[in-house]
């Protein structure tokens, strides 16, 4: 199993934030209502969810404001510029995690598990941003933004947190992938996503 330190997780979070920024910047003008791998959610709703989750991680650490709407019931209507709203959320998340000691064992998170070691807490925020970057990218016909190295680390984090979250509907049931599947396909399958998903699948 891949070993991750708190410092590794912060680096992973930065990479996931970059992937999400890039995915959102590439949404075409007619792409906001496209279907995504998140069943019943459009591109806009996935973005709202991902933005809200990053705000939630920041709020849990800092005691600051929580998302203005439930990330698990996104309206599909954006109130403002999407990139600007996302940037505010990502900045809040990154700034909050930067205040945490690299060896911290009790980091508050907006998850039912309660406080987690930094490598898991920051990794959970990274997992959320990264997988939704993938959702948006493939929904708009672009390549996966996930690298093999990042996917290996994200899978290590996922195995720490995902099983209890399935009961809350945060992740679908694990899907079987080929034994020789690449790290990204393995991660996506574990999270209940079809690695070969397309808007027409």
From TrEMBL:
**Stretches of the chain forming a coiled coil according to its record:** none
Superkingdom, according to UniProt?
Bacteria
Pfam families (UniProt xref)? MDMPI_N
Tell me a Gene Ontology molecular-function term this record carries.
metal ion binding
Query: Gene3D superfamilies this protein is in?
Result: dinb family like domain (1.20.120.450)
Q: Where is the Mycothiol-dependent maleylpyruvate isomerase metal-binding domain?
A: 13-137
Under the heading InterPro entries, the entry gives: CHP03086 (IPR017520), DinB/YfiT-like (IPR034660), Maleyloyr_isom (IPR017517), MDMPI_metal-binding (IPR024344)
> What's this protein's name?
Mycothiol-dependent maleylpyruvate isomerase metal-binding domain-containing protein
The organism of origin for this protein: Catellatospora coxensis
């Amino acid at each position: 199993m891949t070993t991750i330190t708190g410092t590794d997780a912060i680096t992973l979070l930065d990479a996931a934030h970059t992937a999400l920024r890039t995915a959102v910047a590439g949404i075409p003008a007619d792409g906001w209502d496209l279907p995504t791998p998140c069943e019943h959610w459009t591109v806009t709703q996935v973005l709202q969810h991902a933005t809200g989750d990053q705000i939630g991680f920041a709020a849990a650490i800092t005691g600051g404001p929580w998302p203005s709407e439930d990330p698990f019931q996104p309206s599909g209507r954006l109130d403002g510029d999407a990139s600007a709203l996302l940037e505010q959320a990502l900045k809040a998340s990154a700034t909050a995690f930067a205040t945490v000691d690299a060896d911290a064992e009790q980091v508050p998170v907006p998850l039912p598990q309660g406080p987690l070691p930094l490598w898991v807490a920051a990794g959970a925020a990274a997992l959320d941003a990264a997988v939704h970057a993938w959702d948006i990218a493939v929904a708009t016909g672009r390549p996966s933004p996930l690298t093999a190295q990042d996917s290996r680390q994200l899978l290590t984090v996922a195995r720490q947190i995902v099983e209890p979250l399935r009961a809350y509907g945060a992740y679908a049931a694990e899907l079987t992938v080929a034994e020789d599947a690449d790290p990204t396909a393995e991660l996506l399958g574990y999270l209940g996503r079809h690695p070969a998903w397309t808007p027409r699948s």
